[in-house]
């Protein structure tokens, strides 16, 4: 059986038993906007879907680090399943 769950990753992970998961695909914030701000590029003009300056991906480094730490903390039980 295949079940696809679409939601806030950390909230959804808390609902799962670790023995029931075969694969987790997630898209954490990469903080690209923070990197791209102030760069002299024309990417935003070249692509209408350019998200490098999106507010949802423009995090303070410490906020980003805290978010990733929380995400990875919640993934540990699942990550162990795929490690040798």
Automatic annotation (TrEMBL):
- Which InterPro entries does the record cross-reference, listed alphabetically? DNA_methylase_N6_adenine_CS, SAM-dependent_MTases_sf
Question: Superkingdom of the source?
Answer: Bacteria
Gene3D superfamilies, A to Z = Vaccinia Virus protein VP39
What is the protein's species of origin?
Answer: Gemella haemolysans ATCC 10379
Name any one GO molecular function.
methyltransferase activity
Family matches, as SUPFAM superfamilies:
S-adenosyl-L-methionine-dependent methyltransferases (SSF53335)
Which is a GO BP term held by this UniProt record? methylation
Q: What protein name does the entry list? A: DNA methylase N-4/N-6 domain-containing protein
